[in-house]
Design brief:
Length: 233
């Protein structure tokens, strides 16, 4: 763990970016003054955390990557599984977090993210009835807002919660009429964000999440009560 922390510190110190190769194994063994087994275990840990990828073969080695919320989702899933927590806990957490992210995003979201949000809304509308596109755009919409809040903690938390509760994980279905309802809510949230109205954005998001919970309670109560189980993405 200490060697892994030193490797990350050196990545930051050197200003490495995604795709950069780290020094060869021999140089790292000398730099960190550890055995080959310790170094490889440290690199494997960083690979599992999404910090690097390990390219096999000649000319391979550790390559810098950008960690995402997948590791956080995995950790949360494991913790919640051992608590025997149901999927309802994720939905309730979103109800508390996402209105705040929308409020902050109304004040802080960049024009580029706002354009991406509009694209998500339009793409969902054009593909109503396509379940796969709906799930992808639903997640993208909420991810953009969460990261657009300017608060990295909210960004990664919402991203991780969506990884755990993505609809397919609990077997819920979204017929076209339901997709249209979600699209309408997304459009309302987008318009509030576009006008930079924090109160309207928070209210629209709160209503959207609350309506989702009411719908799930009516249609899929057993799914919400299903214990969370760690699964591969």
């Amino acid at each position: 763990m200490l060697v892994a922390q030193r490797i990350v510190a050196d990545i930051n110190r050197r200003g490495n970016t995604v795709g950069d190769r780290l020094p060869p194994e021999r140089a790292m063994l000398d730099e960190y003054d550890v055995g080959r087994g310790t170094l490889r275990e440290s690199l494997r840990f960083l690979e599992l955390q999404g910090v690097i990828s390990l390219k096999p073969g000649p000319g391979g080695g550790p390559v810098v990557q950008r960690p995402d919320a997948a590791s956080l989702a995995t950790t949360l899933s494991l913790l919640l599984q051992f608590e025997n927590a149901p999927f309802r806990t994720i939905a309730e957490a979103r109800a508390g977090l996402e209105p705040m992210t929308a409020r902050l995003a109304a004040e802080r979201m960049s024009d580029e993210r706002l354009t991406a949000l509009k694209d998500s809304v339009d793409t969902m509308r054009k593909h109503l009835g396509d379940h796969a596109v709906f799930l992808d755009e639903n997640k993208r919409f909420h991810d953009i807002i969460a990261h657009g809040s300017g608060n990295a903690v909210f960004g990664y938390l919402v991203d991780a919660l969506l990884e755990i509760l993505d609809g397919s994980a609990i077997g819920t279905d979204y017929p076209e009429a339901r997709q249209a309802t979600v699209h309408k809510a997304h459009l309302q949230i987008y318009r509030a964000l576009k006008t930079r109205d924090p109160e309207a954005a928070a209210t629209a998001m709160a209503g959207h999440i609350e309506e989702y919970l009411r719908h799930a309670e009516r249609k899929f109560p057993e799914a919400l009560d299903t214990p969370i189980v760690w699964r591969n993405a």
